[in-house]
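Reproducibility note. Readers wishing to regenerate the assembly model reported in the main text can use the exact inputs given here. Chain order matters: entities are listed in the order in which they were concatenated for prediction.
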Amino acid sequence: MERLTLDTAKCMSGAEDGTSLTPKMLERLAPRLEGARRAVVDAAGTGMLGWMDLPGQDPAPYLAFAAQNAGRYDCLLVIGIGGSALGTTALATALLPFYYNELSPAQRAQRPRLYVLDNVDPDETAALLGRLDLEKTLVNVISKSGTTGESMAGYLVVRERLAAAVGEAALKDHFVFTTDPTGGALRRIGEALGVTMFDLPPGVGGRFSVLSAVGLVPAALTGMDVRGLLAGARDMAEWTERAEGWDNPACLFAGVQYLEDTCLGRYISVMMPYSARLRDVADWYRQLWAESLGKETDRQGQTVNVGPLPVKALGVTDQHSQLQLYAEGPDDKVVTFVGVREFSETVTIPAPGPEGEALAYLGGHTLAELLWAEQKATAWALAQRGRPSLTITLPRVDAFSVGAFLYMLEMAAAIAGELYDVDAFDQPGVELAKQATYALMGRPGYEALAREIE
Ligand code: PA5
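Running the prediction on these inputs yields the following structure tokens for the assembly.
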């Protein structure tokens, strides 16, 4: 199978004037980078980094569940937030046909439409529930902790509507839960209702869970190539666990991003795919990079307040929205272009008639050629201004490549965590707002905090 490539040439102008990465800087980081990789790889199999075991898992239970329920539901509603939703959305955009939900049941091979509810906006929630035929809907509630207020509120709203539509006794046929194997309110509810439940193994945090039941149950139900995803992730796992230092794509990505941030002041990490299929992978990356690396303290408890700012963009669309800033605004960004060598469709731009002579240069080219030209031109134009970029190229957007790409980014986040010397797997910064919300919503035990906020 063809692998993705990562090109960092446009980060290395060769100038020793402190504006660009230099071979010396890479050389200096090399021992630490390899140490970081070793630390991550050595944790594999210890259960601490459970996401590293996911590529090797047997997907049979997800596929069996999908097979048992084939043709049974018209809609699959995923309720989750953060790492319990972004991965599913990224997979769906990348691997389902465009406008999947608009296809007829036959075109979808009788598989369900897919909706992801990851917010508590009342207008959106009401509109979505108004559209779904609940009698033909399966609801996958996903929450690692099984307690997240937003997702539990979504569950309660949907539960009431479902009970009215199908009756209490049939609720268990319309829910499937993905949650912690033992703890949390969702687990208890699932047990009480007799709902089918999939476990999120310990050591798999939300933003590292896309290749667990979190992403793979919806993937299997909607007919994505689950085995292909895992095969791609496995291939990347083998590669990143073997290749050392700068020869390792996860190290290269993490190391370059780290140096650009900490040595050159480029703390904004833009991910800009030139493939509409990968637009939500950039969104998923935004969470992975932000929650993993944005930390107040290092692992010794010293205050460090570190973390790059991940930004998502889409080529070519954002050339007409963001590029002006990237080219001429503050020199504080490193752009990762994500290109695709082979698209599934070929669309040729027709030659214009005599009235359109000014457009003749476009005629006869394909849209893929235009997309590639725009990506290359943008990287070149940024480089002319001394603005660095990396280019990741996927052979094509299929399950294998996407599985490999996601796993590479997870590995890179873990390695970058080592370089920043922070815990890449916690998110203490979101706790306080969570507790304040509990207080404002009247949860027992939070009365004092409620008074403080009011
Ligand atoms: O990456 C994370 O751990 C978070 O973004 C969680 O996924 C998010 O907070 C939702 O948590 P849970 O799955 O427990 O509902």
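We highlight two features of this model. The CA atoms of residues 3 and 266 lie 28 Å apart. The chain has a mean pLDDT of 96.
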